[in-house]
Sequence to fold (227 residues):
Amino acid sequence: MNERDLLATVPIFSDLSKSEMDHLCDIVIHRSYKKGNMILMEDEFGDTFFIIKEGSVKITRLSEDGREVILAMLGEGEFFGEMSLLDGQTRSANAIALEDSEALILKRVEFIALLKKYPKVSISLLRELTQRLRKSDQQIESLSLSNAEHKIGITLLRLADEMGTIRHGKVTIKNLPYQQDIANMAGTSRETVSRTLKILEERNLIERTEHSLIILDYLQFKRLFGK
Ligand code: CMP
Fold:
């Protein structure tokens, strides 16, 4: 996808006119990251806003005992880096490339100017931040559960909502994250993820192939693990 088409699919920019979009294309900077590269680091000062052009990025923090906690996994067309630009504080989390990735970057002054000039962009940004807050609320609730199966069930539902495709009541999650990453999202261990996925498979709730996972009856799964 070229950058203009991509920017048009970014929800916060979808209301911009053609000339406004042309202006945006003129001012974005391109940057590439190799798999595993740290794109931005918690506690650093930052003055850039990122839109993922290709690839995917995990947003993480380290717990006190040094474990990685995954706050979100973001894909093509999604953005990050806005928080420190808005509140003037340091970066709230790390952003790490999950695969070879490309980003479009806006400098703080341009990002803020865009928000001031186009209220629709600001409102879309607020809508997206509200959705992220809802997901974080769910994650906090899930992390507080003692039952590992439930934690992992909720994490699979989140992955299904963020990256799954639904067909005839089944949700397929392609390019399923590594078991260690699922564990870091759910707040449990890789071994527990491995064991729980086997149990869910034996109960005919999921099916797995090498890189994907299918939730066989999404509504039933949601009744078991969702709200
Ligand atoms: P910033 O604080 O500038 O740098 C880290 C970025 O990670 C942050 O902006 C957000 O874009 C992103 N981020 C932080 N917490 C979350 C979260 N809970 N969900 C999604 N993205 C987040």
Remarks:
- The two ends are 36 Å apart (CA to CA).
- The chain has nine helices and twelve strands.
